[in-house]
Design brief:
The protein is of the alpha/beta class. The protein is 39% helix and 20% strand. The chain is built from 8 helices and 9 strands.
Length: 255
């Protein structure tokens, strides 16, 4: 039976956290049949009541646990949660649940069928994006085009907060990553593809959150610096254990 960890990195999310965890838990009970799962709330340096709420939820709700990091950084939170995990598949999603949860079983199935990384994509055929401001749409598409120009990658959407990795891929990639903030998503994907790992794109339905914590210009500058670091400093090499998941052959790479 496949085990799955779903990490929710949070910073000052006391308002949305209870609703999101309740909705996610109900969805997993109804739709992730035949697997065991655990929701991991990863608080990174919150200054409001987020940590207390996370701790209360971990006591009240079966299948929910939490970890606390005193310093900010979504990448820092994901690295710790994933490296400490003993689950077969590690994943994460944003607390606002902007990505429709209906796509989550497809992420899990892609890993079970042989992919090393599964990525929710808002930019491929079959995806839907609702209520997204034009500025953010242009920024996102421009950023993904920049990645393709610099690295000749084939994955379609680096920044969607909806990803899953096999544990062996996470254990191989994360120790050589350096970013502790928002660029970690892109760094993982670039390292994975350039090392020959299988990446499966999964189309998603995505609704923009007007209350997002993302600072677009600051995040964009951090992403550009990260891309330049990998482009001119070199993409690290990683080696995976030889064992592959049993079952049907890996899914074709979606472009």
């Amino acid at each position: 039976m496949t085990s799955v960890d779903i990490v929710i990195p949070v910073y000052n999310e006391e308002r949305d956290l209870p609703r999101s965890v309740a909705a996610l838990g109900q969805f997993l009970r109804d739709n992730l049949t035949g697997r065991t799962w655990r929701i991991v709330i990863a608080d990174n340096g919150s200054t409001d009541g987020t940590l207390a709420i996370a701790q209360a939820l971990s006591v009240k709700m079966p299948g929910v646990t939490c970890i606390h990091l005193p310093e900010k950084g979504r990448g820092r939170a994901l690295r710790r949660a994933w490296l400490e995990s003993d689950a077969d598949i590690v994943s994460y999603m944003d607390v606002d649940l902007s990505t429709d949860l209906k796509a989550f079983p497809a992420l899990v199935e892609a890993i079970e069928q042989g992919a090393d990384v599964a990525v929710g994509s808002r930019l491929m055929r079959g995806s839907k994006v609702l209520r997204r401001p034009l500025k953010r749409e242009i920024t996102s598409r421009g950023y993904n085009m920049l990645i393709k120009l610099l690295f000749w990658t084939r994955f379609s959407d680096a920044q969607c907060g909806f990803k899953a990795l096999s544990r062996r891929a996470a254990q191989a990639i994360l120790p050589v990553t350096k970013d502790l903030a928002w660029f970690l998503d892109s760094e993982i994907l670039i390292i994975a593809e350039k090392n020959g790992l299988r990446i499966a794109d999964v189309p998603v339905t995505w609704v923009d959150d007007p209350d997002t914590r993302v600072k677009v210009l600051k995040t964009a500058w951090g992403d550009i610096k990260g891309l330049l670091r990998l482009r001119f400093g070199g993409v690290p090499r990683v080696a995976l254990p030889t064992a592959k998941p049993s079952g049907v052959p890996p899914p074709p790479l979606s472009l």
